[in-house]
Amino acid sequence: MFHNITSELWLSDNNLTGPFISNFQNITSKLTILDIFDNFLRGTLPEDINLNFSELRHLDLSGNSFNGNLPMFFSDQLQMLDLSNNQFQGEIPYSINSTMSCLLHLGLSRNNLTGDLFPKNSSLPNLRSLLLNNNRFSGTFPYALSKSMKLRIIDIQNNELSGELSSYLPVLPKLKILVLRGNQFEGQLPVKICQMRDLHVLDLSENDLSGDIPDCVDNVTSWLGRSENAVTCIQDGSRNGTVFTYKGERRIFEAGFSILMGIIDVSCNRLAGKIPIQMTRLKGIIILNVSNNLLTGQIPSSLVNLENLERLDLSHNNFFGVLPHELVGLLFLEIFNVSFNNLSGMIPIANQFVTFSSDSYLGNPDLCGQPLSIKCNGSTETPPIYARAEKSVSIMYFAVLIGLFFIVICLE
User: Fold this and answer.
1) Distance, CA of 61 to CA of 39 (rounded, Å)
2) What's this model's pTM, rounded to 2 decimal places?
3) Which InterPro entries does the entry link to (predicted)?
4) Counting beta carbons within 10 angstroms of the beta carbon of residue 391, is it exposed (0 to 12), middle (13 to 18) or buried (19 or more)?
5) Assuming Cys at both sites, which of 1, 89, 352, 408 could form a disulfide with 333, CB separation 3.0 to 4.6 Å?
6) Reduced to 3 DSSP states, what percent helix, strand and coil does the chain have, rounded to the nearest 5?
7) Tens of pLDDT, residues 169-205
8) Which residues face 107 on adjacent strands?
9) In 275-337, beta strands by DSSP E
């Protein structure tokens, strides 16, 4: 079959078993597309696979049980290479990132690969998407990606990468998805993120980042979007997706035609300081998760400006003061969590806030009102919106009394 088919061979989503064919009897296939995604094939790949498939543009062997080291050579004309969801081990061959200048998509996710992501002198100038998540790569963020200025997706979550992220992360002007979750990056959040104005998804959670949240986040224009363009799409030619936490569940966003939402997740780090007021201008954000940090200050009432929010997690920080009643204006909010802070006063009950359980407020002993069993008494601090109203009424009554006093004086 390989000998006779001269263009494309699509065999994905079947029950094919056995090893990859190894005996070509010195006959070179003219296939340009070979797709055997999601089967039960196993064993190693031939070292000279480029000799057998010298004209390949698209090679998808993902979702099988191939093992051993990656072949040293692939066709230098490859535009799409996906070997995700297998059992490959060892390092990425130098040939993949030195001779494949046509490569648009590289997927090696969910294997057992080790070593550095790319040597410094690597060059993949046309790369659009890079999915290397769930391996055991080490070292720093790859400097070589500074030469890949067309990148739209980077997903290298759940590896063993380290180093000061702000020193190595380049400015990639077309980047839409940056997922670095579950590594060991340290230092401050890179201010360079503010220069990636088309960024939609930023996931830096479960690292060792510290310092303040940059106050330039409102420079990212895609996060400023209104409701009609808060969700956009991206196409990259792959069917292996990127995993995010969405609505409290781990979900896969298909990379082949991904629905992009505004997501900022910097949870499980050591970030300090206050939520910058600039962050409350990001109307395009649908998920905001800053939980499990060292953030402090009062929760800004201006978070109500994030009118498209569906998930807001501020839990496990050091926020204090009252819970702003203005937040009831977040009409699309489905998940809300401020547990384990130092909040006080009455919990606002209106709109979406009627649906949140007591778990959203645990670990704040001075909070009261439904859905907690702690009732509010007269000494409980009144939420600002009510305080302002009471103050206005008091002033009005005082003005009326003064007016009556002068009337009485005049009559006498």
Assistant:
1) 9
2) 0.85
3) Leu-rich_rpt (IPR001611), Leu-rich_rpt_typical-subtyp (IPR003591), LRR_dom_sf (IPR032675), RLP_Defense_Trigger (IPR051502)
4) exposed
5) 352
6) 20, 30, 50
7) 999 999 999 999 999 999 999 999 999 999 999 999 9
8) 82, 131
9) 285-289, 296-298, 311-313, 318-322, 335-337
